[in-house]
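Office hours follow-up: a student asked to see two folded examples consecutively, so here they are.
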Amino acid sequence: MRGEADTAGDDLPIIHGAVPSREVLLRFIAENPDRASKREIAKAFGLKGEARVELKDVLRALEDDGLVQKSRKTLTRPGALPSVAVLDITTRDKDGELIARPAEWADELGVAPAVAIRQSSSDRAKGKAPVGGLGDRVLAKIFVAKDRAGPAYTARVIKILDKRRNAMLGVFRETPGGGGRLMPIDRRDEELLIDSADLGEAKDGDLVEVEIARSGRFGLSRGRVLSVIGSVASEKAISMIAIHAHGIPHIFPQAVIAESETVKLAGMSHREDWRDLPLITIDPADAKDHDDAVYAEPDTSPDNPDGVIVTVAIADVSWYVRPKSQLDREAVKRGNSVYFPDRVVPMLPERISNDLCSLREGVDRPALAVRMVFSKEGRKAGHTFHRVMMKSAAKLSYAQAQAAIDGAPDDKTGPLLDTILKPLWHAYAVLKRGRDRRQPLELDMPERKILLKPDGTVDRVFIPERLDAHKLIEEMMIQANVAAAETLEKKRQPLVYRIHDAPALSKQEALREFLATIGINMAKGGQLRSNSFNGILASALDTPHQTMVNEMVLRSQSQAIYSPENIGHFGLNLLKYAHFTSPIRRYADLIVHRALIGSLGLGEGGITPDEEATLDDIAAEISTFERRAMAAERDTVNRLIAHHLAGRIGEEFDGRISGVTKAGLFVALPQFGADGFVPVSTLGRDYYIYDEAHQALSGEKTGLGYRLGDAVLVKLVEAVPLAGALRFEMLSEGREMPTAIRSFHKTTRRGKKLPGTRARRGRR
């Protein structure tokens, strides 16, 4: 008997009720991304009882072999698109059909797959689905294409996220005789001709924003300069490049601004009066918005000796940003605020983010607060949520609060030291006992910051000091996030979780092979936990391999995303976790606030049934927008550093090998927080073989080579500021490779070349 599992392909034998072959399972997973959970696969093939157990073993083996990977509760082929994705419609095919590509795509996965946008004329006529157009960003349902000759996927548009923009960003280049051309920043765009009358104030080499004035049927289209952003060497120009390249909405529509100016101010209805509670904000010294405040005190209950009560209050954004409002539509389109060295592209207009929802010192502000009780061992005994009106007792910077605790209070922190700051630090010590017992993943990857000069160019790159004040706020925010998830789950209220899956088994195996090359053992099989990785990191502490091991452990981790289905947070080692503490800058937090207000009956602004029904779509969107923001921030830093170093061609720098590929070596300059590339063809007079397990390139004849983490000396030979790219020449001689790598070479020279290896000739 044949069942619905026939969709796996009629050319492969299928027996309904029997576990199918690996080939059938792989095809089914590839062709049915929306039905690729273990439960759905079992249902599709009619599996019950022992057959389900056998299926689980086969799927685990496929995962061990790297042939499938787990995404939330579903399985996908590596590099496959999920069942719902955010797409950019970029072009048309020869038949005029719209073609899209994923809005964000990891470089290591190769070229992003093409997706054909499908919509029947009857659907368009009946208005059943939105109609996308060139340049639109859309949320779409993904299907594997049946026609093998065309794109690998087709898609049906669920929702248009951002309508096409009729503007381009590029560098203006003059041409003889007047006028010029626009050289677009986005490589997907074509050049434009610009007539002399449409130049405005643009000069040769300026970064400009151009409106597409006329599209020619033959030859290049023509454009009109809308604005001159300035020299491409300025940070203002560089962040604008990233904003345009990643399609980040950065100008609030007038309707959104108008709505923000006319919102109804929060009153005391459904609110507790907490204005006498001395909550304080602790933020970076240059922070303009303050969305969280904290307070701690001893628990006087005889049932909790030496326990503490920690209160976290978060700005009540849900009062001002209501579902389906103009503010809400714009916020979900942005997903989150984006931070550049010189500017912030906020999720909400300044009237909301920097004024009405900023917990300013001495000013009444609405908030959603959680009061948490902890035992002296750092175990949470209980918590309650409250909708309140508060008044911040003080605005402090991290350094200011830390200095007071360290014995150097100033005029502001002195009066707060005994009554507010010391109780906070005592509470942190209690919470830290719980954190130490929980053992979240403790990677040592310091974050570098760029300090700019007044003209917008780089002054210096530095690593900010990591203070206990930072850790205090971080741990209190984590506990508030956990409390939010626990409360909503107890109320059976749909929500958006922040989830982080365990590393894929294929990545675990790659890490295990690498660690073996430096003498560190990693347990095989079983369920790894975050503390397993902490043991690995501890083994490498204060050794030459410390940086390299931290980098490899980081690479092995999955990416945290938002999802209405909970699988826990692997990195934090938490079973329930949701983002609650930053609704000014993250839409996920705003959804959680609305869910709490609705489920606890705390007044206006609760979650609506329509929102609950679309949490899958919202989670997919905001996860994509988060990756978009990270990519834009990273690209901006790379371009800034490339500009900064463009005048230092020929200089020598100390670096460390941060990546090894078949094509060459990536070298990081620690003092700048930037990477450059050394092509394998420039390394020397030898054939270089890529050894993935050892993360090395080594000479076939000499046995000399380079490994991940090696300290090297390089010379800068090229800087391409607009691309954010640096190219180096290697000055350090390769070092003798370990015995294991030399044995590996002998194996390959006998003709038994291993998967993923490749010989390259160096400089002749």
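And the second, which I mentioned at the end of office hours:
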Amino acid sequence: MLKTAFVAARDRQRLGEIASVLIGFGVTKVVERLGLAQVARLAKRRTPQVDIARLSQPQRVRRAIETLGPTFVKLGQILASRPDLLTPEWTEELEKLHSQVSPIPWERIRPQLEEDLGGPASEIFAEFDTTPLAAASIAQVYRARLLTGEEVVVKVLRPGLRKTIEADLRLMGHATRIVVDEWPEFGRYQPQEQMRHLASGLYGELDLINEARNCETIAAIFADRDDIVVPKIHWEWTSERVLVQEFVHGIPPNDHARLDAAGYDKVLLAQKGTDAFLQMALIEGVFHADPHPGNMLIMPGNRIGFIDFGIIGRLSQRRRTQLLMLIGAMLKEDSDGLMAVLLDWSGSSNPDLTKLEASSQAFVARHTGASLDFGALLTDFMTMARENDLAMPTDLAILFKGLVTADGVMRQLDPGFDLFSAAGPTVRRKLASQFSIKGLTRKVEAVGAGLFGAASELPTLIHLMLVRLKQGRVTVEIELKGIEKLTRGIERAAARIAVALIVAAFATQLAPRFMDLGTPAFITVGAMVCVIGIGWLVLLGRNK
């Protein structure tokens, strides 16, 4: 249990505030299970301004989170995007979380801003509107004009925020370790992974240089496209707590009256927005993680502007390939392909394959035919994962959230828009390029290089194993699930090791000679050796 006497002394005050707020909103089970009741009694009681008896448990948690500030709001927003972890009653309530707060007066912002700018604002800006355009829990945004005449946006971190967030993250990290140790049943919620994601996101937002770099990363992706606009960063005035960037003029995609009056082609814009998002995610592996209407602007010439890059998502090449296979399986209505991708993502979990197969077939049947609601499809997909005790990898959960948000924006532009169908051509082109002769050749060359590297290491590994066997220093760890199976297991393991050593030695001796014949011959012989060895191992496995 979490013994408050041994929690970091410097965070005791914040710990008391957290416990008091949770108890005030009736979230007492969490406080009791973490052993925080005594701390809460010592803290100043925070009385909610609502009648909590009339609120459901998810509503109480959501109100408590909003009271506790940006760290908890960010965690709640992450969980709201995870229907693979939480039931609809929780995700729907947590989706109501917002980071809009009352703005801090200019008198408190000004000293920090001028300290970071290195002088009075009047020496840098010809105009500065001290009424913020937006006030969120992390930063406030102002409109200004440089002495050179350029219109800019000035983003300023809220003073004193870092200290509170760092304390929250330390306490959350400690609580996460307790949860993992004390309640293994919470393992499927991936508490440690969620904490890593939360901490990474918040520390990224606390450094506005990180946001500026994100902005330039996205700008580089669209450097050859004049229909996608990303604001320019003014690096001479940008620092950890201040971001100065170009002011982008445009109309939000949900302002239908202004869009219609300006004569924009909303169908074309929906397609362009989709192409841009897919280019970021599927082609480049770097994408805007929160493309909501406030972060997209429609500009003259049917152009689209992206702003606010506090958080971006990244996908490895392997993950992008998996995602392509998933979308390809959906497009082909292939339940077996869908199931294969899910199993690839399942990690260490052990799902019921019969149930998973039935769920995959039912999913395909539900989403076959007419125009699809892509947001509903992805939400249903993540729900299917939860019902089969599977959790999505965090990077894909971020992407799915972005896709759902983007789909909602595109539907506001074009109510008949089908992002799933619009994604089809991009997915097929990407799949074709990956599995073309050229693409496969690159993969074969990579495999050949990997085999050669493994072969070059085998003599050392085999020699080390033999030395340790002679010295009696080989340690074997065995998990005993049934003593009656132990003898047979050791016999089979010994036989397999013997065969594996023979195959490894064979491959090692042949490798240098066949490398002289060129990569194709080496790969061919190496593959034959592997197939023969695997065949022997399979036969041994059957002889129980």
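Two things to take away from it. Confidence is low (pLDDT under 50) at residues 1-5, 442-454. The two ends are 46 Å apart (CA to CA).
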